[in-house]
Design goal:
Elements (H helix, E strand, L loop, with lengths): L12 H32 L4 E3 L5 H22 L6 H17 L10 H26 L6 H11 L7 E3 L8 E4 L14 E6 L5 E9 L5 E3 L10 E4 L3
Parallel strand pairs: 3-4
Antiparallel strand pairs: 1-2, 4-5, 5-6, 5-7
């Protein structure tokens, strides 16, 4: 490697090959780390909703920087010139940033299954609290605000694991329905569809998850049956 002032000088072929192999390996490491983030970024823009954290810029930016730097290195090598020091330093900097960005390992929760499990867990906790109240008090509240407050408590105030195209997290929310059979098709993931029998003597809670293609998806068991949490006074 030499400075820009010496970049026009011819470079021996063995030195160019060695330099290309070493820095090509550095670039490949940056690509391997950043490619899953790029795939996730592209996928999020082609479906209405997606599960999991946003793409990590700390891995995306070094990947692009390394590719640009390696392209410049290859051009200089093909021309038989010594590579400018700045391009080599760019690749080295990208590698350092990539290694630092990988310190937490792989990102979990980017599948529909993992998001739906989290939504089910929150719905189950909400159901357990209300079914106990139903048994002890003989009725549950018909007020949506009361259910929403209870939902925020069991979810610890955190949003659902599903995000929009703009990476805004969808909140957990209660939406009351008039009939347990009439489920609205436009309820976003993270919505818990609530039917309460007049008088509060029984209820049904339908959690809405996300499909593998990013669509709202009322959750179902493997056998196709709807996953519904029912609460009722025992006769």
């Amino acid at each position: 490697m030499k400075s820009a002032s010496a970049a026009r000088q011819p470079s021996p072929l063995p030195l160019r090959v060695l330099h290309g192999l070493v820095f090509g390996g550095f670039t490949a490491m940056c690509l391997a780390a950043g490619w899953p983030e790029l795939e996730h970024l592209v996928r999020t823009q082609f479906q209405p909703f997606h599960p999991g954290p946003i793409p990590r810029l700390v891995l995306l930016m070094p990947m692009f920087a390394a590719v640009v730097g390696m392209a410049a290195v290859l051009v200089q090598h093909l021309r038989g010139r010594t590579v400018q020091l700045a391009w080599s330093l760019l690749i080295l900097g990208a590698l350092v940033l990539t290694l630092w960005g990988q310190r937490e390992g792989l990102v979990a929760g980017r599948t529909a299954d993992s998001a739906n499990v989290k939504i089910l867990e929150v719905a189950r906790k909400l159901h357990e609290g209300n079914v106990n109240a139903l048994r002890s008090q003989g009725a549950v509240s018909e007020d949506v605000g009361t259910w929403q407050s209870a939902l925020e408590q069991v979810s610890l105030g955190e949003p659902s694991p599903v995000r929009t195209r703009s990476f805004e997290p969808l909140p957990f929310r209660i939406r009351k329905i008039e009939s347990p059979e009439a489920l609205p098709p436009d309820a976003p993931p993270g919505t818990l569809l609530l039917y309460v029998m007049p008088g509060g003597f029984a209820y049904a809670l339908h959690p809405v998850g996300v499909s593998p293609t990013g669509e709202p998806w009322p959750l179902h068991a493997p056998d196709g049956a709807a996953l519904v949490f029912h609460g009722a006074i025992n006769p």
